[in-house]
Every structure is written in structure tokens, then in C-alpha cells.
């Protein structure tokens, strides 16, 4: 693979192409794309290929070995130099637009300053990672579905007939429910769901620490599900009904906390302690009309990359079409941006002027034109 030239006249400006950065807009053919994309997909790779970079520097690994992804092959087919694993510190070290070169050992230089070091990705390495990932994915999926069968075997009565679901929740029937899980994005999603909440007044189910997020934004949860040790005293005492996960033998984490606070709580015995999974089963069992899940969902990539478990998948399958991701609802309630605001303002001014003219023209004792002339003369005649 060709390395960057030491000649400063050669192209090779570093461009930050990580999510939210502005490097994509400034990108010119031959620049160097800096990304943070583990297991880069074909779509992501094609976006880079279209930019025609001389090299792509990845903070993460182009392929971690967890899934067989074609992204690295597409970039190599386009004769693009690939450097991976430079680490998060590299993002803060380089300056947007500065020219760079890559040494034979994978060190990135800007002038004489070393910004970081990574690994060169060759065709041989990409093929080896792909083959290894194929085998690992098959092994992982066999294990995942084996665990799914075990979960169904132990929790079939819960999944089929709702055995063990707390009985207190009859008011959920026919209502819309928003289930908040305490992930990185749930607070922002809560703000963006305010119009939906105002219009439909759904019941609010908070999982663990999400109860405190609801209180902080002026909402009171109707139900709190999860380990009480992750919830503040204020939230536990806010009037919400508290549901505490219990293992199949009946042991409950956080029971001492509930007793010390002197509040009532219901137990939910199951083979999973995930408040989100239990919340979905709880809302579905009691007949929720719609369940909006805020704080992250589950997709096939999560299964492939071992970011979820069988209970998460099966609980969502049980709730079926009732479950809607919060981002979908937010998208429906987001008005498209418009650049025509100035036109509406101008139209409003013109309408106001026309109204004034009509009032003046028809408001006098003379004909329309004479009334306008007399009013104009009285206002500006002495100017």
C-alpha cells in the first residue's frame, strides 16, 4: 500500500468524519477520513468510497471479528489505505485540515509530530478477519438460540399466560404506555416526546433510575420497575407503584430498602431481572393499546454483536406490534424544517397593510380614493 508523501504539496488533509463532525462537508478528493466505526458496514464504506479519500483512519477496528462485514473489502477494492485502532486519543490530537502522512509502522504524522499509531489493514488481514468472524457468528447464534430455548422452557407460563405478572395494572387496558429505560438517550427522548405525552396522556413506566429522570423533567411515573437500589428515595415515594424483580425462587434484591422506606411493592418473579423486559411483559399482559419504548430497542445487529439476550428478544416478540420505538414517534411529531419563514412574515405584513388601507378607505365620509388622500395628507403633509 502506498503511504502518504512527505511532500507537503501532496493532498492528505485530515478530516474528522465521526458522527456530528463537519469534516464530511469540507472533504476534497485525496483527503484523509478519520472515523470511529467498528465493524464498518457496506453502506458506511460506500459513503467513504464516494468521497475518494487517500486513506481512512479508524479510531476503532474495521472488523472486530464478531460479524463478517464487507466494509473493509470495499475500501480496499477502491485502493484506499486503511489504518485502524488508533484509539480515542487520536481524535483530540489531530487538527482539522492539517496534512498528514502514515509511516510504515502505522504511525500518523502531522509534520514531525506523531499523532498516534494504529495497524495497517491488508487484504490478507481483511480476509482472515472475515473468515474468522463467519465461524464466530455461527457459534454465537447457536448459543443464543440454545439460551432462548432454555428461557422458553423455564418461562413458558409467563410468556404464554402471564403467570407471575403482578395483578395491579388494570388501568393500563386500552391505554397508551411509554416505557423509559435508563440508557444514554432516554433523557433526550423524554424531552422530544413531550407533545405526544401532552396529547395522549399515556401511562408512564420507569425502569430503575429513569424514574428520577422523569421527576427531573416534571413527570410522575405511574409505575417503577427495577432494583430499588438504583432509584432515589424521592422517586420511590412519589406515589408510583413499585414492582421489584425477583428470581424464580422468590429472592428479591433491594427488599431491605423498600422496607426501610415504608412503601409497598409488588414482586415480579422471572428468570430475567431486566426491568425493560419485565415492563414490556407487564404492559402487554394488562392490555396496553400501544407501548412506546424510550431508551433503546433491539435489532438484529444487537443479536449478532452480543449486545442483547433472549429475554429481550422474546419479550418484544410477545408484545408484538404494540411496541413502537420512541424515535419513530418523535419523528412523527417533528415538524420539518423550512426556509420559508421570512415569506410568511412578509405575507403577514402585506395583509396588515391591506387591512389598514381598507379601513381608511371605507371609514371616511368621502369616496375611497378621497379618504386615502385626505388621511395621507394629514399624516405626511407637514413633512
From TrEMBL:
It comes from the Bacteria. It holds the Pfam family SteA-like_C. Residues 1-21 are annotated as: Disordered. The keyword Transport does not apply. Keywords: ATP-binding, Kinase, Membrane, Nucleotide-binding, Transferase, Transmembrane, Transmembrane helix. InterPro entries: Put_SteA-like (IPR047795), SteA-like_C (IPR022215), TPK_catalytic_sf (IPR036759). Residues 328-380 form the SteA-like C-terminal domain. It comes from Corynebacterium curieae. This is Cytokinetic ring protein SteA. Gene3D superfamilies: Thiamin pyrophosphokinase, catalytic domain (3.40.50.10240). SUPFAM superfamilies: Thiamin pyrophosphokinase, catalytic domain (SSF63999). The chain crosses the membrane at residues 341-362.
Amino acid at each position: 500500500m502506498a503511504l502518504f508523501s512527505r511532500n507537503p504539496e501532496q493532498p492528505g488533509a485530515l478530516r474528522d468524519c465521526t458522527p456530528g463532525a463537519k469534516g464530511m462537508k469540507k472533504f476534497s478528493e485525496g483527503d484523509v477520513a478519520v472515523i470511529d466505526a467498528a465493524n464498518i458496514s457496506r453502506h458506511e464504506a460506500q459513503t467513504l468510497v464516494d468521497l475518494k479519500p487517500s486513506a481512512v483512519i479508524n479510531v476503532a477496528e474495521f472488523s472486530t471479528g464478531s460479524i463478517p462485514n464487507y466494509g473493509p473489502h470495499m475500501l480496499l477494492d477502491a485502493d484506499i489505505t486503511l489504518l485502524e485502532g488508533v484509539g480515542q486519543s487520536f481524535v483530540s490530537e489531530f487538527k482539522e485540515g492539517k496534512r498528514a502522512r502514515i509511516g510504515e509502522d502505522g504511525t500518523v504524522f502531522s509534520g514531525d509530530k506523531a499523532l498516534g499509531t494504529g495497524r495497517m489493514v491488508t487484504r490478507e488481514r481483511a480476509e482472515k478477519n472475515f473468515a474468522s468472524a463467519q465461524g464466530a457468528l455461527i457459534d454465537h447464534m447457536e448459543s443464543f438460540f440454545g439460551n432462548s430455548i432454555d428461557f422458553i422452557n423455564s418461562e413458558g407460563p409467563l410468556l404464554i399466560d402471564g403467570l407471575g405478572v403482578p395483578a395491579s395494572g388494570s388501568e393500563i387496558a386500552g391505554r397508551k404506555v411509554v416505557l423509559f429505560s435508563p440508557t444514554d438517550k432516554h433523557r433526550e427522548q423524554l424531552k422530544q416526546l413531550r407533545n405526544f405525552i401532552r396529547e395522549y396522556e399515556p401511562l408512564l413506566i420507569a425502569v430503575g433510575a429513569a424514574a428520577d429522570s422523569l421527576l427531573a423533567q416534571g413527570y410522575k411515573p405511574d409505575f417503577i420497575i427495577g432494583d430499588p437500589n438504583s432509584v432515589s428515595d424521592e422517586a420511590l415515594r412519589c406515589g408510583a407503584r413499585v414492582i421489584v424483580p425477583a428470581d424464580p425462587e422468590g429472592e428479591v434484591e433491594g427488599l431491605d430498602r423498600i422496607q426501610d422506606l415504608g412503601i409497598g411493592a409488588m414482586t415480579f418473579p422471572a428468570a430475567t431481572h431486566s426491568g425493560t423486559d419485565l415492563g414490556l411483559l407487564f404492559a402487554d399482559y394488562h392490555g396496553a393499546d400501544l407501548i412506546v419504548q424510550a431508551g433503546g430497542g433491539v435489532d438484529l445487529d444487537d443479536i449478532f454483536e452480543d449486545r442483547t439476550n433472549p429475554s429481550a428478544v422474546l419479550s418484544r416478540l410477545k408484545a408484538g406490534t404494540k411496541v413502537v420505538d420512541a424515535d419513530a414517534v418523535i419523528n412523527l411529531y417533528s415538524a420539518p424544517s423550512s426556509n420559508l419563514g421570512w415569506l410568511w412574515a412578509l405575507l403577514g405584513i402585506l395583509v396588515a397593510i391591506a387591512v389598514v388601507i381598507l379601513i381608511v378607505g371605507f371609514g371616511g365620509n368621502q369616496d375611497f380614493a378621497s379618504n386615502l388622500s385626505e388621511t395621507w395628507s394629514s399624516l405626511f403633509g407637514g413633512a
